[in-house]
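not sure who needs this but someone in the group chat was asking about ABC-type quaternary amine transporter from Virgisporangium aurantiacum so here u go. i didnt clean anything up, its just raw.
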Amino acid sequence: MDGTRSAAPINLENVRKQYPDGTVAVEGLSMDLAAGETTVLIGPSGCGKSTVLRMINRLIEPTGGTIRIDGTDVGRQDVDKLRRSIGYVIQNVGLFPHQTIRTNVGTVPRLIGWPKAKIKERTDELLSLVSLDPARYGNRYPHELSGGQRQRVGVARALAADPVVLLMDEPFSAVDPIVRTRLQDEFRRLQETVRKTVVLVTHDIDEAVRLGDRIAVLSEGGRLQQFAPPAELLASPANDFVREFVGGDRGIKLLAVTPIPREKLRPAEGAVAPSVAAESTLQEALAVMLREGSSQVVVQSNGTPAGLLTVDDIVAALAAPQPGQQPEVVTTDGAQPSKPTR
Ligand SMILES: Nc1ncnc2c1ncn2[C@@H]1O[C@H](COP(=O)(O)OP(=O)(O)OP(=O)(O)O)[C@@H](O)[C@H]1O
């Protein structure tokens, strides 16, 4: 698929939403979402994630502040035109039950008047892209598909008219954990191809870490507690709220987003050990060690050994400060001095 038209940056400036009953769901949120990146909004139930997402396509109108897509204030755009330029995927997909899969996927292209042949070509292309054979599934109805397959159709439909932004509200939470992991992997591959500006809401920190280029942790009232790439969020939570939210096993999660430190490998000459590819994460390297009962692995780059990685090296890599992390200072009596104020 041609992903060239692609993506636009989103800018939120002091965005506020007070519902008519007085509930202030979002108090005043400012953030810049980079074009072509996946930004994950995460936080406890009721913190305002869905409200933020729906203000971007104006399913909910903000009561203050400005949202811009590619520099243009969405509040000043024609709302139908705006929504057609934004893909939207929700938990239970919302496919039209009496329409075939192909017709469902072609909804927006039809609305904007594409010729029939182009719609057919596009829908078949998209179904293939989300791993559904168009010949097999195109003429079926939604109830003739599994939950995971329906979710894929939802993603294909959202991408049909090549939107500049893709909004996803808990897109994978209605399926079982195994299907969810597969859909997440597929989404990652898909996003490498289409490079949309994606805003994804989840309450699952593992999903956030797997899918996000950056993660925004929100607390009640849509208050932004930290906005950082997954490795930075896990290595150096900005405060207790974030630390608690990412969980006590953040070290393990960090393994999954930390690449093998190529520059720190030991010489591999003569070493007999299982091997891993140089592009692997520390988690993958550790998994090989555990599976093979070995305390080290040979790291292979283009078929030749690039060096040796040991369990101790993994421990040391996790202990090393990650990008953006403040070095933790411990005094000799073990007391933690307060962090320097900036
Ligand atoms: N139409 C509405 N009228 C009044 N209050 C609302 C309305 N919709 C949402 N709220 C409130 O706004 C706050 C934020 O809701 P929102 O759905 O954005 O949260 P969320 O973080 O997406 O929650 P969850 O993870 O449970 O889906 C909540 O306190 C909710 O009760």
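also Confidence is low (pLDDT under 50) at residues 324-342. if thats useful
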